[in-house]
Amino acid sequence: MKTARGAGRRISLRSGGAEAYFMWVGADGLTPLLSDKSRDTSRNLGGTAERRFVPCWDGAFFECGVWSVELYAVKYGSSMFSLGSVYFDQKGSPRKVPFFWLFYLAKTDGKTVLFDTGFRDVSDFEKWGVTPTFPDFTDLIKDLKTRGLLAEPDAVFLTHNHFDHAGNFDLFPEAKFIIAKDALFEGVRGKDHIAVDDEYTFGPFTMKVVGGHAPGSSVVYFHHGDKKYVLTGDECYFMANMTENRPSGAVADGQKNAAFIKDGFDRKLTPLTFHDPQIFSIYSKMTDYIAKII
Question: Which residues are 77's β-sheet partners?
Fold first, then answer.
């Protein structure tokens, strides 16, 4: 066993010739501890109520437990959508509102991570009245690669298994897929994947299963500096679901959805949603279809 002493300690464990790396983080699973004077982590690997042990990238060393993160929102389509589906308190409203169709990509310490994949089935674009950003989704992928934003992803978080979030899973054959056990579907079963029961941490990102919007519907927490974010999947359609504590109108389990939104509201988390046009108003637009979040 080897330890790297100092702030945000990394622990290196060898077993059967393999080596894995871990980092102490705070109890919220988001904040790397920047000091640990109370214990020698080489002897205490089990964690406590105040801290726990999470995996880092294989073979990587993150000084002081701080990851470098770039995060981008990518719009692959736009449409109008029922306001009553966005907000529970607008159920029955005939009004439709502008609606974007997004996925996110992150570049972090030499790794590329996707959050959902979008879809490319022409019949689904027609059914939902979606105008695609590019006529062919693969042209969007080529554009992102040309811009140096997208390499072959190391990991793909699937927040749930609905067509617009997981439909393009087959475009990324080398990626590790991270998805809730209750949302696992046949196409991913035969790929390298992690089926999450409750919570799973990969690098700076922690997936948490909520199950409000749909069975196995999940969210992803991370922090940047002193700001805490949550990639909401469809537990929130719009940022105002969380910032105004307004549960969603499209849910399988309303209590779970409302509890997640109330928790984020109380903790003042910054929601990053997959359908809100405001993402492209609040954050820096690189193009009409790429916004830099961080």
Answer: 101, 132
